[in-house]
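pasting for ref
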Amino acid sequence: CLGFFLNPNCEAETYFIADTHFGGTKTMKRSGRPFRDAEEMDETMINLWNDAVEDDDDVYILGDFASDWQTKEDVFNILEQLKGKKHLIIGNHDECWLNQCTDEELLRYFETLPQHMEIIYLENEKIALCHYPLFDFPGVVIHGHIHNFKNRESGWEIIRNKPSILNAGVDINGFKPVTLMELRTYNHFFKRPRRFF
């Protein structure tokens, strides 16, 4: 590794993030995000992303990268500002802007063509990457879609009791891409029973 003397741990990191919903005022309000407007939200998430990620790191985006109404040009403008080798798992809000793109355009911004699910191996673990949580996968599941909601529709009754199901949504992970270890820490606190005094 050429950067060994500057950084003895030169191995690239792998990060996970979901449900950024860049440009999404409605999502910002619905999830209770602490921003004045979508412009502040986008700028903050771009800065946090680039503070965490280096150019050689892999970043798996677990769906809903942008809002439904965004054009491909809006999305490409954001992608150009973000560090890392990006991989997109398609979410329910991505179809609209993805349908405007050719494969050649997508491969300018992503390492692989977007797909609905991918299996990777990381730290000796088999990991399913998908937008919607999977409940019966024999390994770790990293997902998005539920934001910070703890209701029946999100599958919360199952998710909260399965430490192998990890929510990569920005609403519980500091609005930035996180490593597998960080993901486990944030999810531990997210799943902790509420205490009332």
